[in-house]
Amino acid sequence: MEPLVVEHAAALIVGNELLSGKVAEANLVELARTLRPLGVELARASLLPDELRVLTREIQTLSRDYSLVFTSGGVGPTHDDITIDAVAAAFGVRSVEHPTLAELIRRAYGERCTPAHLRMALVPEGAELALSPSGAWPTPVFRNVWMLPGVPEVFREKLDTIRAWVRGPSPFVSLAVYTKLDEPSLKVLIDQSVETHPDVDVGSYPRWFEPSYKTKVTFDARDRAAVERAAREFVASLPEGALVRVE
Amino acid sequence: MEPLVVEHAAALIVGNELLSGKVAEANLVELARTLRPLGVELARASLLPDELRVLTREIQTLSRDYSLVFTSGGVGPTHDDITIDAVAAAFGVRSVEHPTLAELIRRAYGERCTPAHLRMALVPEGAELALSPSGAWPTPVFRNVWMLPGVPEVFREKLDTIRAWVRGPSPFVSLAVYTKLDEPSLKVLIDQSVETHPDVDVGSYPRWFEPSYKTKVTFDARDRAAVERAAREFVASLPEGALVRVE
Question: Of B125, B142, B167, which closes a domain?
């Protein structure tokens, strides 16, 4: 596999347990916080149940519309683990045993290894493996779809693999201005900033139950000078005493 | 507004801050845990950035494919709060000031009330208000789209409103069987259960770092007798000593 330079990505989080509220979703923020410093924009996330047709259609759409797709979940040995089959179906190929994964599983389970264990070696036919720099389990990649596990402890082990193989065209730069004013009071100043700096993504985040500040205004772009200019001008436009800090 | 009986729902979670990793998404699990006991199936969730065209298209799709849509986020007074406009655009209507909301805002802010504050009274033209049983802020509803706030503390205040107005055709019943066996060892028994009980949703959840059990197998359906039968037969099929508990 070659290292990848990509602009944006989508996440497909799979699992009935997340939609029924049995389990709180925990992987999305980890993926977001991994991609952001790499300069890859996470452009959307979809959470879907364990249904082959639904997953297949979503994988087709996401893999067409975004540079990379990261799936999470549905890769174990049981009947409700259908992500690999859905990726295979999305591209019209079969699921086959990957010899490297099968060998790893045989080595890990030894005499206890059964056909059920070997189901975890299935990949869409033609998939490659992204190797982990720390020696953790390799990640199957088919075209632009990365298939990651759902168990949060195991998902987190794969973040190093993403860092090793994926990066954006340039990093994002972000500054946050914390103020004592509420959003309505800041609206004119924020609107002015948005208009003056169309290439900077300006965000406004009120905190209702936070004693130290009322609104955080963020400035994001790939261009550091543009971000610093927008933040500096916004701070200069604040009334006296309104600024808490810039980070 | 009339109380609603609905089969399924979708969630649309809005906000750049969730996709950039600045903030961890926190409302989805609350919504899931509210809908489940009501007997409403949360069938999918989409997390999208603050982009009018993207949101408009998603609202059109979700409101067509699901009985109800709950949006979260993008309802404040600033430029990046565009959920109301996206719902209006999705149905080809304008955003207009709702007189009841405008009055509430004027009362809350008194002399400090500005046009920026009154932006929070905007709704798609023709929207109704779902009133809160506890007197919290009313929730704008346009056709089958409920527009909820993104700030988690405020989002949670709206869950009572959902409970007051929405319910499913019948509640879900769920049983969980905790076992000492790993998933591959259970696969044959689980497959047998899935085949024998096609109307019961069987889930299998391994825990890799939990001392008290290795796999939780869940049985879910609207039919209590069917769930109890499937769980009972599965427990009976377990080898001696494998059962930890049933919940």
Answer: B167
- Say which CATH number the domain at A72 has: 3.40.980.10
- Measure in Å the smallest separation between the Cα of A207 and chain B Cα atoms: 8
Q: Which of B19, B33, B201 sits opposite A21 (nearest CB)?
A: B33
Q: Is A23's CB within 8 Å of B76's CB?
A: no
Nearest residue to A9 (alpha-carbon basis) of A81, A70, A96, A98:
A70
Q: Distance between CA B91 and CA B125 in Å, rounded?
A: 10
**Distance (Å) from the alpha carbon of A25 to chain B's nearest alpha carbon:** 7
Q: Identify whether residues A91 and A197 lie together within a single domain.
A: no
B29:A29 CB<8 A: no
CA distance B131 to B161: 7
Asked if B91 and B42 sit in the same domain, the reply is yes
Residue A209 pLDDT level (bands cut at 50, 70, 90): confident
Calpha distance A65→B57 (Å, rounded): 14
Distance CA B88, CA B82 (A): 10
Q: At what angle do helices A52-65 and A83-90 cross, to 10 degrees?
A: 60
Q: What's the pLDDT tens digit per position in A5-51?
A: 999 999 999 999 999 999 999 999 999 999 999 999 999 999 999 99
Cα–Cα dist A6/A9, whole Å: 8
pTM assigned to the model: 0.94
**ipTM of predicted complex:** 0.93
CA distances for B1 relative to A31, B38, B91, angstroms:
40, 18, 19
Q: Say if residues B213 and B244 touch (Cβ distance below 8 Å).
A: yes
Cross-chain residue pair B79–A172, CB shorter than 8 Å: no
Contact B221, B201 (CB under 8 A): yes
Instruction: Count the Cβ atoms, other than its own, within 10 Å of residue A220.
Output: 21
Interface contact A184-B43, CB threshold 8 A: no
Among residues A167, A196, A217, the one where a domain terminates is A167
Residue B225 CB: number of other CB atoms within 10 A? 9
Between A117, A151, A194, which is nearest B79 by CB?
A194
